[in-house]
Amino acid sequence: MLREYFLFIQNYFKSTYTNKKHLIYMILSAFFYKGFYLLLPICASLIIKYIATGDFTLAYFSVFGYALLYLFYKVAEWINYEIYTYNMEKCYVDLQNRILNKLLLVNEDFHHKMTKGNLVNTITRDVVKVGDMLDPISEFLTTFVQVLVVVVIVSCYNLYLGLLILLYCFVYLRSSMRSDKFKNVYHQKVLKDDDAYSNLLFQTASGLQEIKSFNMLDKIKSKLKNRQHLYSKHYKQKRKYEVLLENDVNFLTVYFRILLYMLLLLGLIHGTFTIDVLVLIISYHEYLEEYLYDFLYAASTMREEVTSLKRINRILNYKHETEDFSGENDTDDIKGIVEFKNVSFAPKNHKVVRNVSFKVGENKIVSIVGPSGAGKTTLFNLLLRLYKPTKGSILIDGISIYDYSKRVYANNVTVANQKPFIFNMSIRKNLDFVDKDISHQIEACKKVGIHDFIVSLPNGYHTILRENATNISGGQKQLIAMARMLLSNAEVLLFDDITTSLDSQTTKILPKLLKELKADHTILMITKKPELMKCSDKIFVMDQGKIVASGTHQELMKTSGLYQNLNAYRSVSRMGVFDHD
């Protein structure tokens, strides 16, 4: 019955910051304050005994002893609380940091297996629960000893009463823990239902515009209602076992109390007990009820917190994270010559990139084009060291990209994505993450053509951007992200189809901006726009993971049927049919 709880404790120490000595300190301080509390009924019975015998001096000493014991009890309890608070803070911070570090390493596969709702609930709710776990562990262990001490004390006065109380404790705990076990089964289902509901709610909030546009609101409400129904169903089952647990406890407690009172009354009538012993045993029985409740509550809390611990470990023990591919080369004098040599990438034996080779000189603009699924973004992910090729090598300035240190590589290779992430803070603070010098920020914003718009805002660079910058246009958000990228002073700039969110006016000035940036950077871009292909020094056409053609725009229009088709399809977008292509 108790074995699984000790396994819970063992798993807790394996998974958290908590040092075993903190548990020892918690238990020792708990033993002191609970031990002092256990002596109070003895003092109370002595007071009654000495008053009954007329020995008022000893009665006064007993009252003084009672007051002193209570003071010691409160001091030890305060020390116990301070140890708990210290450990709670350390454990909470440690778990949050470990989860954050894990999230910085994981790949896209992780996000397919872990929903946003599950992730948010784990980080916010489960980490707090596990951080709090040392208290129920300490309570579980010390209360168990307290129950045994009460049984021993009562047995010293009357062995049969002691054995009867021991039997009561066994039946009480056996029945209660069984109900608690079933309750926890439904508690886990409730958590899963809550994750699913939260995840659907997050998705609804993120795609509200599309949901309204396509008149999907009623269907979404129906799905949310179904999630609520499942949650309610499992919660009712959980509550059923909670009620059964409470009823069982109350039934056993009340009827055992009646039985005990009858036995004590008989003992008093027959002279087996004196009045002071009767008061002492009744007091310890009341303590016992409290201890058993505390023990059961601690055991139930531990079981729920172990469920939270498993959810946390699901994140921390995730095995398919991106490895740290950093090296030790700290040379920061990089020109920006990018080279792929016979690179193949085949995760899970599914070839995404096949024997790709090309070289990009410094201060060049290169476009990578091709149909959806051709492997373009995978090339960028490889260049960003998110993955490592199955075969071949990727070089910058003739050195393997995996030899560069994390600091050097991050400073020299950066990317602008289709959907850049902007924090819910001012424009300046968003730029501060890269460079806090306001003059550098203004210069970068002027380069990308967003400065005039920013200074036209009432608060200029101190304008607060809403979450994901919803209070400015997609194009303006992209330009701020590009300015942030320029502040990094990286030599190699990667543009992953950034024109998706740019308006037609901004897209027109982009070729001129790229040519200006080319003077100080090597630029690789994935694009669908013919106007950007035309300004490239070289274009690589990809299909099914391979480079099937390369050359300038003029050359490829003569030699590559796939390139011609891509341009023919894109030309429609200039007529307004595919403005967001």
Brief summary of the model shown:
With 581 residues, the chain is an alpha/beta fold.
Fold topology:
Layout: H1 3-15, H2 20-53, H3 56-103, H4 108-113, H5 116-131, H6 134-157, H7 159-206, H8 208-213, H9 217-269, H10 275-316, E1 338-345, E2 353-360, E3 365-369, H11 376-383, E4 391-396, E5 399-400, H12 406-412, E6 413-416, H13 427-432, H14 438-448, H15 451-456, H16 474-486, E7 492-496, H17 504-518, E8 522-526, H18 530-534, E9 538-543, E10 546-551, H19 553-559, H20 561-571
Parallel strand pairs: 3-8, 3-9, 6-7, 7-8
Antiparallel strand pairs: 1-2, 1-4, 4-5, 9-10
Helix pairs in contact: 1-10, 2-3, 2-6, 2-10, 3-5, 5-7, 5-10, 6-7, 6-10, 7-9, 7-10, 9-10, 14-16
CATH architecture of the largest domain: Up-down Bundle
* Secondary-structure element series: HHHHHHHHHHEEEHEEHEHHHHEHEHEEHH
Into which percent range does the helicity of residues fall?
55-70%
Anisotropy-based shape: elongated
> Which blocks of ≥5 consecutive residues have pLDDT under 50?
571-581
CATH superfamily of the largest domain: ABC transporter type 1, transmembrane domain
Q: Can you identify the CATH class of the largest domain?
A: Mainly Alpha
Give the helix/strand class: alpha/beta
Distance between the termini: 63 Å
List the domain count as a whole number.
2
Largest sheet: 6 strands, mixed
What fold name stands as the CATH topology of the largest domain? ABC transporter transmembrane region fold
**Could you tell me the strand content as a percent range?**
5-15%
How many runs of DSSP E, i.e. beta strands? 10
